[in-house]
Amino acid sequence: MNYKSVERYVLSLAGSKLGHPFGKELSVFSINDKMFAIIEIAKKPLRLSLRCDKQLAAILKDRYEEVMPGHKLNKDQWITIVVSGQLDNNEITGLINHSYNLVLEES
Fold first, then answer.
1. CATH at 24
2. Averaged pLDDT score across all residues of the chain
3. For 96, which of 5, 10, 11, 24 is 20 to 30 Å away at the CA?
4. pTM check: above 0.90
């Protein structure tokens, strides 16, 4: 997945909004004014940070090299995915949905 395909998918989720509260280099996606996805625009390969259940995050970090603790975020609640092909598009969109649903449930 590239930036545009991730952006298009995230914005297709009901109520999802795009903003740049931390500067032009970070695209921040939110639902009900709560962040659920962040893309570091200038990074190659793409870096996508998502909210994640703590137990699932531990499994993903053990299983995939491209999944790491959230970069500059709460490491218990966020993961950062270096989108390099280890996870396929369906897995990435599934994790986006997971993040969206976590935040939506908290709202």
1. 3.90.1150.30
2. 94
3. 24
4. yes
